[in-house]
Design goal:
The protein is of the alpha/beta class. It has a single domain, classed as Response regulator (Rossmann fold). It is built from 5 helices and 5 strands, in the order H-E-H-E-H-E-H-E-E-H. Strands 2-1-3 form a 3-stranded parallel sheet, with helices on both faces.
Length: 174
C-alpha cells in the first residue's frame, strides 16, 4: 500500500504504481530458468538517474530479489542525452540481461526498437497510443507493463472511484 496517500475509502487501499511495476518485473525475473542458481539480471534504461530506482530496488528486495545476492541490475543512464539511449539498450543486450525496465518514453522506445527478444516491462501513460502495444488486453510482442491512463480504462477508473466514494459528484482527469 502506498503510505504517502490516504485510501479513498477505508476498505479500498491505494496501491502506488512503483510497487506494482516492481512486482511485475520480479515475477518476470523469477520465472526465468535457473542456470546453476545464476542471479536474475535486470537492465534499467533511463535518460537520467531517477529516485524511483531506490523504490524499485526496495520492492524487489521485499519480493526476495536482493541486489548482489540473487539479483544483478545493470544500470544504463544517458546523462540527459536521449540520442545515447539506443546504444545503451544495445549494451544491456550484450550484458546478458533477461528483462529490460525502461524509465521514460525515450528509453521505452529505444528498448522496444533494440531489444531483439528480451522482454520489456514499462510504465507508460498510454502504451496503445504510442504504439508500444497493440492493445491493453492483448499487448502482443515482447513489451508489457502498466498503463497509468488509457482511453480503454479511463471510464472504468472513474466508475471504480464512484463506487469507492459514494458522495463523489464530479471528477476531473488530467
Amino acid at each position: 500500500m502506498d503510505q504517502g496517500r490516504p485510501a479513498l475509502h477505508p476498505a479500498v487501499p491505494v496501491i502506488g504504481r512503483r510497487p506494482i511495476l516492481a512486482a511485475v518485473v520480479a515475477t518476470a525475473a523469477a520465472g526465468l530458468p535457473a542456470v546453476a542458481q545464476a542471479p536474475a539480471r535486470i537492465g534499467w534504461l533511463s535518460v537520467s538517474e531517477h529516485p524511483f530506482v531506490k523504490d524499485f530496488r526496495d520492492r524487489l528486495r521485499e519480493l526476495g530479489l536482493v541486489e548482489g545476492k540473487n539479483l544483478v541490475i545493470e544500470y544504463r543512464y544517458a546523462q540527459g542525452n536521449a540520442a545515447l539511449l539506443p546504444g545503451l539498450a544495445e549494451e544491456l543486450l550484450k550484458s546478458g540481461v533477461s528483462v529490460i525496465v525502461p524509465s521514460g518514453s525515450g528509453a521505452t522506445d529505444a528498448a522496444v526498437t533494440h531489444a531483439r527478444g528480451v522482454p520489456i516491462v514499462f510504465l507508460s501513460s498510454d502504451p496503445t497510443a504510442t504504439g508500444l502495444v497493440s492493445s491493453l488486453a492483448r499487448p502482443g510482442g515482447i513489451a508489457t507493463g502498466i498503463s497509468t491512463m488509457s482511453e480503454d480504462i479511463a471510464s472504468k477508473k472513474v466508475d471504480l472511484l464512484r463506487d469507492a466514494v459514494k458522495s463523489l459528484s464530479r471528477v476531473a482527469l488530467l
